[in-house]
Design goal:
Radius of gyration: 20 Å
CATH topology of the largest domain: Umud Fragment, subunit A
Shape: elongated
Structural class: alpha+beta
Number of helices: 5
Distance between the termini: 30 Å
CATH architecture of the largest domain: Ribbon
Strand order of the largest sheet: 5-6-11-7-8-9-10
CATH superfamily of the largest domain: Umud Fragment, subunit A
Length: 198
């Protein structure tokens, strides 16, 4: 059995890995579980390692990993049925689960926090966390992370044009699309999903 502090530490590390694609550092763990002592955070992590809830990959700065069985168990939540967002439907109980790791996890995936309101018409709001699959190509009208002029990144709808140009379109009618020569834009990933807490 885990203590409350150990469980809180494990929950924080699992959520951090899901959100960021890599493990937190000890200062980040301490802040994340609301303590000041990195030594105490290290002690909690050491206990989790000894009990098999975590494993450590040697030679890496962010080397904490989740064993497969813990990742499967810890990132699943019960799926109890369906709920209407339109006309009411009959409440039908179910016994299943949603595996967040299968939905959002993966070696080529990473998370970004959204700033601004340029994608609100797709339901992507300021403060949301978007899950991105790393790639350098995208289909027409996909939502992508685009690097412009090797300097700034933006989340936009990707729309290739003729004459070697690319249009990046916001999902906000009050904002204008941006058109660039293709060699100025590098695709860094495509949108997989969005996470939001209330």
């Amino acid at each position: 059995m885990l203590t409350d502090s150990q469980q809180r530490t494990l929950d924080f590390i699992q959520a951090y890995i899901l959100r960021c694609g890599h493990s937190p550092t000890y200062p980040e763990i301490a802040r994340g579980i609301g303590i000041q002592s990195q030594g105490t955070a290290h002690r909690y992590v050491k206990a989790l390692l000894e009990m098999g809830y975590l494993r450590h990959e040697e030679g890496t700065h962010r080397g904490l990993r989740l064993p497969d069985e813990v990742a499967e168990q810890g990132m699943s939540i019960p799926l109890l049925g369906k709920i209407a967002a339109g006309l009411p439907i009959e409440a039908i109980s179910g016994y299943d689960s949603v595996n967040l790791n299968q939905m959002f996890g993966g070696e080529n995936r990473f998370a970004l926090q959204v700033e601004g309101d340029s994608m609100i018409e797709l339901g992507i709001l300021h403060g949301d966390t978007v899950i991105i699959e790393a790639c350098n190509e995208a289909r027409k009208d996909a939502v992508v992370v685009a690097l412009i002029d090797n300097y700034e990144v933006t989340l936009k709808i990707y729309h290739p044009l003729s004459h070697n140009r690319i249009k990046l379109i916001p999902a906000n009618a009050s904002l204008q699309p941006m058109v660039y020569q293709a060699d100025r834009v590098q695709i860094q990933g495509v949108l997989v999903g969005t996470l939001r807490t209330y």
